[in-house]
Amino acid sequence: xxxxxxxxxxxxxxxxxxxxxxxxxxxxxxxxxxxxxxxxxxxxxxxxxxxxxxxxxxxxxxxxxxxxxxxxxxxxxxxxxxxxxxxxxxxxxxxxxxxxxxxxxxxxxxxxxxxxxxxxxxxxxxxxxxxxxxxxxxxxxxxxxxxxxxxxxxxxxxxxxxxxxxxxxxxxxxxxxxxxxxxxxxxxxxxxxxxxxxxxxxxxxxxxxxxxxxxxxxxxxxxxxxxxxxxxxxxxxxxxxxxxxxxxxxxxxxxxxxxxxxxxxxxxxxxxxxxxxxxxxxxxxxxxxxxxxxxxxxxxxxxxxxxxxxxxxxxxxxxxxxxxxxxxxxxxxxxxxxxxxxxxxxxxxxxxxxxxxxxxxxxxxxxxxxxxxxxxxxxxxxxxxxxxxxxxxxxxxxxxxxxxxxxxxxxxxxxxxxxxxxxxxxxxxxxxxxxxxxxxxxxxxxxxxxxxxxxxxxxxxxxxxxxxxxxxxxxxxxxxxxxxxxxxxxxxxxxxxxxxxxxxxxxx
Length: 508
Prior knowledge:
With 508 residues, the chain is of the alpha/beta class. The chain has 2 domains: 4-286, Metallo-dependent phosphatases (Purple Acid Phosphatase, chain A, domain 2, 4-Layer Sandwich), CATH 3.60.21.10; 294-504, 5'-Nucleotidase, C-terminal domain (5'-nucleotidase,  domain 2). Helix content is 25%, strand content 27%. The relative contact order is 0.12.
């Protein structure tokens, strides 16, 4: 056949950032879908594809769920931007299957997610052949990390099973062979190895992109989930890309097929320029409604709670984490609390609005109270202590395992209810040099109750020590709602400075 072209515009992990705002600072920002879609130039040989995690993550997403009650507005937005295919991300399940259905039922794009199975084992969103205007046949399959089963509340997955993604992708690829000219896998997951050196970055099966490239022969692998820019490169004959999150950029992927040969290139395009006025006008009521809802004053603090660089907060403690732990202790009645902060930490001003709470705590986590031993507690703090490392000059820095392949500051936990010392010069697993509860050394046989979020209770983030601990209580309200309720209970909140953790870099 003669030379034929395919153009793909690919976004992923938008996290409901649509308008050019970060909901933190005033003014327009180079962020959001509308700052990307302004450069989609679509024709009959173009596909616009999204890699999942659309419905949750920004205050706008919270507004649509909590105030509107359905996700049809997001469907209309995706329709207006010309999307042809989407897959599902782990956060698209955060509000349950009924809410997700309101999005998918109103969506013009086809959802492909080969490892999303009905209760009878049938594939709910099977792979599809798309025939371009030029006659080129494109086989498109979607898959999502099966860690959805670990992270998500069971009631949010009723009637659905997320199977192992590699086998699902392989089966679909085998079915495609001989029927298509080009194969595309849309994977809501990332890479477990360094793409250049092949060095193992994670032993977890959360991300298996490298394995897909190594063992399967897709022409194009569109990845997400890790919020890590991959501009475009060949990995074992598969062309891979990944955009950053929140509509900060998108990928333009171009394939040329001629006489059985395929040439694939890509360009990372940052969000910028003017949004399409028609899009802004069409959804302005949604954005204005969200802003009004978000601007409601919900409480007052005696002083602003300010963020600092992640390493500084981890080493010195932080008022924001201390406040979250205070809320968790008050809501749960547990003896100990552990919390984490987002990769990009937003503080809380003295006069607190609803948007400040949702920005400071962007996750849909609920809380779980576990019964743990002193041994489990020490192991958990030791895991958090792995966050620290020393650079070549002996200066404190963040360990690479929390930075590569995905930035994971949120897997460092801040603890309340215990006093402890971390000595960074000690070997990994032996860094907790002191651990006290109410002035008494903690022994391995001691028993405590600890409040953690639902993500951590699942063992995620490197905390398998929690997996087999008895569940004392589950608090099925989202943490952001608990924070709002906490403000209602006290007209003026005073947050104490954290002083229960000491990080040493010098030998004692």
